[in-house]
Write a structure and sequence with these properties.
With 754 residues, the chain is α+β, with helices and mostly antiparallel strands. Helices cover 14% and strands 36% of the residues.
Length: 754
């Protein structure tokens, strides 16, 4: 159905109203209505001066003042002249302006999109009746004259129908189709067609002196009777008279029979439908002058009733009988609609009852399933009462399904992201959802991470370095719709077999997991850069390698889940860090065991341990001018402390009690850790130490100056010599072991663990 917006008066229409109010114009003459296929917004209508895409224009057929400031105009459109159909999107009302001529006075737009005027196909005529009510300055100033040739409106047709009905009544056609004339009979006082039967004779109506006179149709004396007594006289006239008399007699007999015979037994006229009140039928062919009615002449409930018709005196039925006739009449059941569910309950865990459109307890009964808890469809049953029926005429119970809808589903994950690494190759998170819908999960990149589901627990396992997204779905169940999917991002940092390609963080993860040996081997190298001044010697972006000494070396004493390293190598050459005072003593010598020529205090109290290497601090807070401070930050971030056992007293005595533990981040190797046997160290050190796998495998102990990789140098070990109070053990330039004065600067090959 078409729907139009409010009728908006244009600015030109407003100007014309202003002229009326100002008295510069005498009246408004609305002349036509145009239909346009163009689309406008309501906001555009006031500013319109014309319409585009006008498809039809019709003159106005009726104008009516509705109140002091409003006028109703009517017109109609027909498709009989259309070869192309169009959408009636905009209607424009036109009026004559005394100054500008024909103007667009007001407009309205169709909002439903359903107003289509089809082209004429030679068979079907389509049309539209238009009624517009618009505001004017003064309705008395509106011209009400119309073109009589305009298309008739619905109002015109209704007015004509009223006139036709008046004519029907005038000529004697009442609502039952018969007037007084139609029911007149020859037995009536007035007769019919100038003929009546009265006083057992047929009478003919004549006029005498302007007055009606009834005269017997046969018999009567006359002067000509004597002449006529001669049977031979006027034989032809006698025959004609006799024939006329016979005809008259037969007519009288026939009229007599008609007058006293009831030809038709009355029947119910139309139908009655139950209303709850008393109903009385209307009868076809019932004349109270000839029949009496009794029995059940009215009723309230739907059903069949028996009325009795009894003849008046001297009357017979057309079958010759005179007994009363019983005639059935009916009150039909009222038609009621089958109810429909009006509400939309959603599962809430409690029992719920539907609401109904069209349910009236006085007209029907409700049975079947009328309450429910779970989402789903339930069958209710409606049975019409004794006075009612369904639209299809049936009276048996109708099953009407009603439903409880699923509630909105919900889904939450205990974690939104996972980080997997060598230390933690798998992790889990839990799913919380409403109801019991099946949980499923998929990985966007199974080569990086796989996923499995057990109940509401999601397990993600890392397979390779990379990223993946785990998407979790929950299916709908009986009472809940499927919620929106949720995701968990996964980042996997896995070691690569090429040791140098791994970050120190990744190496730490493998070390923490105790799985480093699964990926790498003793001797594998990783490059690092030294920057900083160490006791007077400056390292400026020195690229040097650390290599693996062993995995979980001496773990029961030194700490588990550690990978042990030693610095250094440059290219393929094993090197030691040397300052400019290598193999010299003096106050400006940097890389020396002690500032004075003594091993007193052993490794624990040495200048090398505390100051040169920096064990007086930590990797996150290294002492200034220490080698620890020169290490790259990413390495220092993952370094672990290592428990080392060494002679920490010194003084040239082989006392087992001198061997105690220190906690170091950077350390020098001990004699036994390099050579696997004791030469000049405290004999008790070997009880707490193990040879590193790197040197156990036979790798060379010869090292070269990091600034001249073809020049072999001797390098310090942390073990004090058991004989003499001046010496610490060292590795000679040929790879053997010896001892040297503590205040000499020598090569440094520090170790650490991650």
């Amino acid at each position: 159905m078409a729907e139009f917006s409010k009728l908006v008066v244009t600015r030109k229409g407003q100007a014309l109203i202003a002229k009326i109010l100002a008295g510069t114009a005498t009246d408004i003459d609305f002349v036509s209505v145009a239909a346009s296929d163009a689309s406008y917004s309501v906001d555009e209508l006031e500013g319109l001066e014309s319409l585009s895409a006008i498809m039809q224009e019709s003159e106005i057929s009726r104008k009516t003042r509705t109140n002091e400031v409003a006028v109703k105009v009517e017109t109609a459109f027909s498709n009989t002249d259309l070869t192309v159909g169009y959408h009636m999107r905009t209607l424009g009302l036109f009026a004559n302006d005394p100054d500008e001529g024909k103007i667009l006075y007001a407009a309205t737009v169709e909002t439903s999109g359903n107003c289509y005027m089809p082209p004429y196909n030679g068979i079907t005529v389509s049309g539209a009746y238009i009624q517009l009510i618009t505001t004017v300055g003064n309705a008395d100033n509106v011209s009400l004259e119309v073109n009589p040739g305009a298309i008739a409106t619905i109002g015109d047709i209704q007015y004509l129908q009223t006139q036709i009905n008046d004519i029907k009544i005038f000529i004697g056609l009442d609502e039952e189709g018969a007037g007084g004339h139609m029911t007149a009979a020859v037995t009536d006082e007035t007769g019919v067609h100038g003929l009546r039967y009265k006083n057992d004779e047929l009478q003919i109506k004549t006029m005498e002196d302007g007055k009606e006179k009834w005269t017997a149709a046969g018999g009567g004396a006359s002067a000509v009777n004597v002449h006529n007594e001669d049977e031979e006289a006027h034989a032809d006239i006698r025959r004609a008279v006799k024939n006329a008399q016979d005809a008259a007699d037969k007519a009288v007999e026939a009229i007599s029979k008609i007058a006293y015979t009831v030809d038709v037994v009355p029947t119910q006229n139309g139908s009655l439908t139950y209303t709850g009140g008393v109903l009385t039928p209307v009868w076809n062919s019932f004349n109270p002058a000839t029949l009496k009615i009794s029995g059940q002449t009215s009723g309230t409930d739907a059903g069949t009733y028996n009325a009795v018709f009894t003849l008046e005196e001297n009357y017979t039925w057309s079958d010759g009988t005179k007994d009363p006739k019983t005639v059935q009449w009916v009150i039909n059941r009222a038609t009621i609609s089958v109810p429909t569910q009006s509400n939309s309950p959603v599962y809430n865990g409690s029992a719920q009852t539907p609401a109904w459109n069209g349910y009236e307890s006085g007209k029907m009964t409700l049975g079947g399933t009328t309450t429910g808890t779970n989402a789903g469809t339930y069958p209710a049953a409606f049975t019409p009462g004794a006075n009612f029926q369904w639209p299809d005429g049936s009276t048996t119970a109708k099953t009407v399904n009603w439903s409880i809808g699923r509630a909105a589903g919900s889904l939450t994950l205990s974690k939104s992201s996972l980080a997997l690494n060598a230390a933690k190759l798998s992790d889990t998170f839990t799913v919380t959802r409403a109801g019991s819908g099946a949980i499923s999960a998929t990985s966007s990149n199974p080569s990086v991470a796989t996923v499995s589901v057990a109940g509401n627990v999601i397990t993600v396992t890392g397979k390779a370095k990379g990223s993946a997204t785990i998407t979790v779905k929950v299916a709908a169940d009986t009472n809940y719709n499927a919620p929106g999917d949720k995701t968990c991002s996964v980042t996997v940092t896995m070691p690569t077999s090429t040791f140098n390609d791994n970050t120190w963080a990744t190496i730490k993860e493998a070390s923490d997991a105790g799985t480093g040996a699964n990926y790498w081997a003793v001797g594998d190298e990783k490059t690092l850069t030294l920057n900083g001044t160490v006791q007077g010697y400056t390292f400026n972006n020195l690229s040097i390698k650390a290599f693996i000494l062993g995995f979980n070396h001496n773990a029961t004493r030194e700490g588990g889940n550690r990978i042990h390293f030693q610095i250094g190598k440059i290219g393929s050459a094993a090197v030691a860090l040397c300052d400019s005072k290598y193999n010299n003593s003096g106050s400006d010598a940097g890389f020396r065991m002690n500032q004075s020529n003594t091993n007193s205090g052993g490794w624990n109290g040495s200048y090398m341990r505390k100051t040169v290497l920096g064990n007086s601090g930590t990797p996150t807070s290294p002492p200034a001018n220490s080698l620890m401070a020169a290490l790259p930050a990413d390495l220092r971030a993952v370094m672990k402390s290592t428990t080392k056992y060494t002679d920490n007293t010194g003084g040239g005595s082989d006392n087992a009690s001198y061997v105690t533990a220190t906690t170091d981040y950077l350390f020098l190797l001990a004699e036994f850790e390099v050579f696997g046997q004791r030469y000049g160290a405290n004999s008790a050190e070997q009880n707490y130490q193990k040879q590193y796998d790197y040197y156990k495998a036979g790798n060379s102990r010869v090292a070269y100056n990091h600034t001249a990789v073809t020049t072999a140098v001797w390098w310090w070990l942390r073990s004090p010599s058991y004989y003499g109070s001046y010496y610490f053990r060292n590795v000679n330039t040929d790879g053997g072991t010896s001892y040297n004065n503590a205040y000499y600067s020598a090569g440094v090959r520090p170790g650490f663990s991650v």
